[in-house]
Every structure is written in C-alpha cells, then in structure tokens.
Specification:
three-stranded mixed beta sheet, single chain, disordered N terminus, alpha/beta, globular, nine-stranded mixed beta sheet
Amino acid sequence: MISGSHDVQTSADVKNIGSSFALPDPAGRAGGACTAALLEVLYRYYDEGHDDDDASWVEVLREMRSVLQQRGYDQVPQLTSSRMIDVHDPFVITPSSFNPKKNTQRAVLIGINYVNQKGELSGCHNDVLNIAKYLREVQGFKKENITILMDDGHHKDPTKSEIMKAYKKVVKESQDGDVVFCHYSGELTGFYVVIGDEDDGYDETLIPVDYQKAGQIRDDDLLKVLVHPMRAGVTMTCLMDCCHSGTVLDLPYRFTADGDVEEMEMNEKVNFTDALWTTAGGLVAAAAASAVAAVTTPPPEMMILGGGPNAIHEYSDTGCCVVS
C-alpha cells in the first residue's frame, strides 16, 4: 500500500489537477493530491517509453513525494504490504507472469463526494475516472471487469453494503494469477481503541455515503473481508486517497519514503497470529506459530498471511480536508 502520508496526516483536495499535475486529459478539475501524484509519475514513465518494471517501489514513492512537495503538500508516501518485499524490486500493478489468456484483471473503484451532505467533497469522482482511464489504456484492464461505485446518480451508490459486496465479489472471483486493483477516494476517520495495532491509537474507518444510517467500515473489517480470504497467487494493489489512511489495511510491513529508510520494516504492533490468512481447512496452529517465529527472526525474508505469498500493496493519501 502506498499512502500519501502517515495516519496522523490529512489528504489534499486539489481545486484544479489539470494545472497542478501533469495528467493527460484529466476528468474534471478537482481531485486528490495522492491519486494525481501517483498518476503523474506513472504516466511520465509510460510517455517516456519505459517498461512497467523500469522503476522500483522506492523510486515511484520518492518521485511521488517530490511531486507533492513541488505542489506544496507535505504528505510522505508510505508503502505497506502483506509480506516482506524488496522495495528496490520493480513497481508493478500487472506482473510479467500475468497470462491474459487464462487470467483476469479486475478493479473496484470507489469515489464518494458526499453530494448534498455536510462536508461535501469535489474531486473523488474525478479520481475514480482518472484511475479507470489509466487502468484501461495503460494497464489493459477491460471495462466490464471494472466495478465503479460513485454517488453521482449514474453508478451504484457507494453505500456500506455495496462497498462490502463489491469487495467480497472481487475476492470470490479472483484466482491464482489474477490481478486486482482497488481504489478508494473519499473520507476516512479514526475510531479510538484502547489496545490495538495502531501507532496513533485509532482504527481507521472508511466513510460510506450512508454512514449516518449504516455506520462506518473499520480497517479490521477490511482486513477480514478483502485481505484474509484473497487466494494465493493474486496480486492486489490498493490506492487509498483519503485522510489518516497510512495503515488502513493493517498490513504488517511498511516502507516510508522520507529519505531516511531504505528497506521495509516490520510493524511490531500488528498481531501476526490474528493476521494470518485462513485456508479452506481453517487456521492451523502450527502454521501460525511458525509464521510468528519467522517474523521475529531478523532479517525477515517474507511474511505469508494465510493462503500464500499474495502481494498486496495499499496506496493511500492522508491529508484530507485541505483544499488547495
């Protein structure tokens, strides 16, 4: 997961991404700074004729930070993952092992402007449309495999039930070798926990459009619904463009593009036994014990949460409610 900032930072809602960021024919004017920064970096590589694996995770994150700093934003991009990865390896959304004849690319894109509600946003729909355009035209995703939820009167509303339904559906359909991209642009807040796995003492919660009636979606629920049951061999990338989302999927490894860190580090507050993914036969105690022992033996080589070495990366921006 690449987040635009730490859990304690907020995300930026940019008034005019067309003039602030180098995006080809962006949808509308407003948009999220994190989404725009990532797309600017990725389009630059694409326009210069680079292959998908020319840039490393470190390079992409640090270029994102440079783009954000040049536009006056102080967010620090952050990558979290379900396993220890070499951040100097190539940044990829669709790995070279993907076989379009037998595998499928799927996406779940959610944009919530909270139309006619207090605190209405302006750029979340545009973020989704810009991401969808990039996935189709550069990554080769098919339109029929892209699920879009937006409160724009044209798509299904991003209610709590529809969001959870979309996540469960993409998990159920995805098989070994498939690719999944999830994007959320909207509000995210914190829910205080006395004892937990958060540096700031708060669980992060997504804010669906009907949150006043249906409630919020806690990061612990996302872990159980979206991360734990995903089959081994599926490569999933999540971009979370919202406030306080640095650890929104509670993944155990992280890299911060602040210039001081060169490798991924283990988040010692994550409960690795609870985080282990379940298989059809349930969680095996011996496997849990082995995994916990493995992550406490430095340097850790890989953290396998359940079914297999799924590469799950979150991209998120935390700097919300700042309009520029």
